[in-house]
Amino acid sequence: MGRWDDEGLPTAYFAEALIGLLEEKPLSSISVSELAERAGVSRVTFYRNYHSIEEVLERYVTDIAHSYERKVSEGRGFASYIREDNILLLADAFREHAELVRCLRKSHAEGYIYEAIERGVLAVSLASERSVQEKELAVSYSAALAGPLISWVADGMERDPHEIAEMLCSLFQERMRRY
């Protein structure tokens, strides 16, 4: 359910309250008082654990990304991110957290998703000796992974995720051959 903060409440607890608010209004219009009230805690409890509402989102999306990273990086390294089965794992994560993805997109805050995936791909990439070009390629792949899946969720997830995974694999493999 996510990392535990100092009060014993998981980050997901605050994130769920925040998602509920994001369904009603944009991120920029949400106050800490509203979030604390929705979560059933005091502002003091909120500030004991977070500096900002944005930090709640960052931690929650990072926790989700770490869960995906653990599944993908088990001994396979960067190349595993561009395998079809692992792209499908990412699609499953997007499906599982579709409400969050839609809310972030509606608030023009999908950058949290891009950043979390980029950090994960770079972490795997940086764990081994990689050239600057390979690291830049990892950043490009992370955006190429996130973008179509964000759109897929926003469009109601009607398209078969296997088609998206095949398209991305084809794109990545073509780029790898040129590289």
Mind sketching the topology for me?
Blueprint: H1 11-22, H2 32-39, H3 43-49, H4 53-72, H5 84-96, H6 98-106, H7 111-126, H8 132-154, H9 161-178
- Regarding quaternary structure, how should these chains be classified? single chain
Give the overall shape.
globular
The SS-based structural class is mainly alpha
> Could you tell me the radius of gyration in angstroms?
17 Å
Number of alpha- plus pi-helical segments = 9
Characterize the main sheet: none
Order of helices and strands: HHHHHHHHH
The share of residues in extended strands comes to under 5%
Query: Can you give the helix content as a percent range?
Result: over 70%
Could you give a quick summary of the protein structure above?
The chain contains nine helices and no strands.
Description:
This protein is mainly alpha-helical and 179 residues long. The protein has helices at residues 11-22, 32-39, 43-49, 53-72, 84-96, 98-106, 111-126, 132-154, 161-178. Mean pLDDT is 82; it is low at 1-8.
